[in-house]
Design brief:
Blueprint lengths: L2 H10 L4 E3 L1 E3 L2 E3 L6 E6 L4 E7 L3 H20 L2 H17 L1 H11 L4 H18 L2 H4 L4 E6 L2 E9 L2 E5 L7 H12 L3 E5 L6 H13 L6 E3 L4 H9 L3 E7 L2 H13 L3 E5 L4 E5 L5 H13 L9 E7 L2 H12 L21 H17 L2 E4 L16 E4 L6 H4 L6 E7 L2 H10 L2 E2 L1 E5 L3 H10 L4 E4 L15 E2 L2 E2 L6 H7 L1 E9 L17
Parallel strand pairs: 1-5, 8-9, 8-11, 9-10, 11-12, 13-14, 13-19, 14-17, 16-17, 19-20
Antiparallel strand pairs: 2-3, 4-5, 6-7, 7-23, 12-22, 15-16, 18-21
Bound molecules: nicotinamide-adenine-dinucleotide.
The site of nicotinamide-adenine-dinucleotide has 27 residues, from helix 9.
Length: 510
Amino acid sequence: MTEVADQFTEERSGEATRISHWIDGKRVEGTSGRSGPVYNPALGVQSGEVDFASVEEVDAAAQAAKRAFESWRSLSLSRRTELFFRIRELVHDHSEDIARLLTLEHGKVLSDAKGEVARGLEVIEFCCGIPELLKGGYSEQASTGIDVYSIRQPLGVVAGITPFNFPAMVPMWMWAPAIACGNAFVLKPSEKDPSASVYTAELLKEAGLPDGVFNVVHGDKVAVDAILEHPEIAAVSFVGSTPIARYVYETGTAHGKRVQALGGAKNHMIVLPDADIDMAADAAVSAGYGSAGERCMAVSMLVAVGHAADDLVSAIQERLPKVVVGDGMNPDSEMGPLVTREHRDKVASYIEKGAAEGAKVVTDGRESAPDNGGFFLGVTLLDEVTPEMEVYKDEIFGPVLGITRVDTYEEAVRLVNENPYGNGVALFTRDGGVARQFQFDVKAGMVGVNVPIPVPVAYYSFGGWKSSLFGDLHIYGPEGIQFYTRGKVVTSRWPDPATSKVDLGFPQTR
Ligand code: NAD
């Protein structure tokens, strides 16, 4: 382990660690007088206290980024690539430490946390190919003696605002392409699990990233608003819930910024009567309850078509008692706690609500939650859920899986297409023709065919439709590179001075 990482993990073993900002290559203690608690959700105890930034502190981060930008964008692509390979190695070597931080503050089980880091690392690896990604076009002799070429240049200072549920991976979706493209970055991570961001900052410094290119400011709405209104910040990437995504998009664009704001989800998994029911049940349990349902790509509604329903419900019901719920640091645990007590209680209230609305509570997670003071809730299965129920309409974001029963494929697709969200969707079938029709018909950004969580690989881009995304460009992959750069087209000639003459006509191609 490196010296920097050593220091960090030692500090983490103490009581209620203070978690500070990272500005201009160093930790900066907050002076706003405002802060928030960070919990170990598996124990239900406070483990940290995170500083909340003032408008001035956000400005200090933006100014540091501005100072760093010009020399960073001037660094050659080969040097930038070399640095990205070092970043890749350091993040890879410290994956386990990062994963531990995630488990300690978010609650997800360690194996899942490692998976999160691995998927983020893939985005960093994609960014190691930045010279190829920034290549422009060239047209020789576009007109006689004239060549035309396109280049892509960084925007300047850009910012990322991230949710609690992927405290390492979602920031990597943003900072890696942003920095690789030559921008300087200000990150405002979730105040619920902020440590992974500061840890990342230390690794980036150790890799040799110049001070000021990557900054972290913690906080709440004050910090977010300061970012959205800051005149030096050219673009904002946001991932979080739909109401805040809409707010960030509207406020950021009103201040002249480029914004991509990814929102919430209500992901459906349709199971057709010809599907392999055991495979569908395994997928539903994995995708519904993995990370305690706190994934924007979690399956939250199963749509069982025709006679698939009864078999599917019993196959899932059979699997649920075997799901091991417990402290994420325990290697036997398959599902950890929820992130906070408030969130756990809110999710639990949907079980009550579902029952009152007429859903059938097949398995009640309140009865199987470990009782050690941690923010645990067991797995819940609700059958006979209908689209007008709150448990259908709301993004519950917890280990509550609903089943709705329909007669036909057409009804199932209509449910998905009429839903206000359009993040992920999956179809389970053995019929290739229907699957092909489904990808044509369905209104969602990420489609799985017999794949329950279709998160695109790093060389495609991630993003939903409808209320799951505000803005034009999806995140990471080729669209991420486009988001963090703007195009310039150069028209150039190197004429023989002997042929030069005055010509007041509009330039025409010859
Ligand atoms: P959230 O919207 O509460 O918070 C996201 C960020 O916004 C945080 O940094 C938070 O500090 C900030 N924020 C919160 N309230 C704010 C306010 N009033 N004004 C300004 N900023 C505010 O989301 P969360 O609870 O941290 O994360 C869970 C949500 O994120 C779920 O809805 C989930 O679907 C969504 N999510 C979406 C994707 C995606 O790719 N579409 C990925 C992960 C999570």
